[in-house]
Design goal:
This protein is of the alpha/beta class. The chain has one domain: Aminopeptidase. It is built from eight helices and eleven strands. Strands 1-2-4-3-7-11-9-10-8 form a nine-stranded mixed β-sheet, with helices on both faces. A two-stranded antiparallel ribbon has the order 5-6. Helix 2 crosses helix 8 and helix 3 crosses helix 4. The longest helix is centred in the N-terminal third of the chain and has 23 residues. It is globular. It binds zinc ion. Zinc ion binds next to loops.
């Protein structure tokens, strides 16, 4: 009896500690440190890939409190990460071509051998990242981004198959989806939305491209930096309406 009560107590202590420990976890994947938030499992995945997009970080961290699903948030505070001594935009690493162009752009002094060696390394290391990051079949991944004055939905309209622009006066706040079924639901929302199921142009190495190519349901919630209420409203609408 005693051993049973001890094991019960141990189990209870572990069960109580687990959510707190889970929320504190750090994981290094593809050479990048992530905060890992997972209170209980679900097919939902969430990502903050650019460390300097602090509005998206705050919205996502608050959103995950008590929520099912897994969130990975880059712990660094900059847009770039350093991988094997080279600077890299982490949202350009999801194809070899995209990562190659970006490594040369951000590391003009790096030789071809250093870049190719890093690409080989990324090809190996990315497998573990994608295994943790991508949802199981039919699941949804939500990526959170912020932009400033330059980038807006106008940059994406030309390579999108469908656009829904109920709020063209706020072009910095929009949702980009890779699934036609999800876009069909977003067309009933008050938010700008774009569909890129088969995006045109060259593969820039972004996660949306990889998800589109693999048939993974991906949604990017973009908001101007500081538009916390707007970004939260888009995320909450999405949770209520997308399966
Ligand atoms: Zn971003």
């Amino acid at each position: 009896m005693q051993s049973q009560s001890v094991s019960r107590r141990a189990w209870l202590a572990a069960a109580l500690a687990w959510p707190a420990l889970a929320a504190q976890r750090r994981r290094i994947l593809a050479g990048i440190e992530f905060q890992w938030i997972e209170h209980s499992p679900s097919p939902r995945r969430y990502l903050l890939i650019h460390g300097n997009e602090h509005t998206a970080r705050e919205v996502l961290q608050a959103h995950m409190q008590g929520r099912r699903g897994r969130a990975l948030l880059v712990t660094g505070q900059e847009r770039w990460v350093t991988v094997r001594g080279l600077r890299l935009d982490p949202n350009r690493m999801f194809s070899r071509e995209g990562a190659r162009r970006n490594l040369h752009l951000l590391n003009p002094a790096a030789g071809r051998a250093a870049v190719e060696g890093t690409l080989d390394w990324l090809d190996r290391e990315k497998k573990a990242l994608l295994a943790e990051l991508l949802p199981p079949r039919g699941g949804l991944i939500v990526s959170m981004h912020n932009n400033a004055s330059g980038y807006s939905l106008e940059s994406e309209v030309g390579i999108s198959e469908s656009v829904w622009l109920p709020s063209r006066g706020t072009p910095h706040d929009f949702i980009l989806a890779t699934s036609g079924a999800d876009f069909g639901i977003l067309e009933r929302s008050p938010f700008n939305a774009l569909l890129q199921e088969r995006p045109r142009g060259e593969d820039d190495g972004s996660l949306s491209r990889l998800c589109a190519a693999r048939g993974v349901r991906y949604v990017n919630i973009e908001a101007r930096i500081g538009h916390e209420a707007e970004q939260r409203a888009m995320l909450e609408w999405l949770e209520r309406h997308l399966p």
